[in-house]
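Homework help board

Subject: predicted structure for assignment chain

Our instructor gave us this sequence and asked us to write out the predicted structure in C-alpha cell form, then describe one feature. I got the C-alpha cells but I'm not sure how to describe them. Can anyone check?
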Amino acid sequence: MTAEALLSRLQHVRKSGTGRWRAQCPAHSGGTGNRSALSIYETPDGAVLLRCHAFECAASEIAGAVGLDLSELFPPRATLEKGGKPIAKPWIARDVLKVLDMDLRLAYVLFRDIEVGRVPLNYTAEKAKTAKDRIGRLISELDRAT
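My C-alpha cell output:
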C-alpha cells in the first residue's frame, strides 16, 4: 500500500515535506487541537511509517483504526526466487531503526507510568505481547540488515 492510499483514509491531511504528511490520528478520539498529531512518512523503498505525537498510539493501532494490518504498510519482502523458495530481502536498517525508535518510546512511557503507579487504562497484556513481539521482530531485522 502506498502512502497516498493510506492518506485517503485519514482526516485533516496536509503535506509537510517530500514524502511526509500530518493528519489527525484515527486511533484516538482527539479534539480539534490534535488535527496534526499523526506524522506519516513514506520511505524511498515504499514503507509507510506512522507516529502519533499526541498519545503515542502504536502503529498497529493506527493501521487497525483505518481497517489495515500493519504489514500492509510495508512493501512485499520476497523479491527473488531460488529453487522455488522466495528469498527475503532485509529491510534497510535506517527504516527498521525508525520503527523501533517509535515502539521503544512507547514502551518507555508505559514503563514510566507503571513505575510511578499509574497503569494506563487502555494498556492490556495483549498489547504488551504485541509490542514485545514487534520489537523482537524489528531487532531480528536489524541483525539481518547488519
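Reply (TA_rk): Your C-alpha cells look well-formed. For the description, you could write something like this. The mean pLDDT is 77. That's the kind of observation they're looking for.
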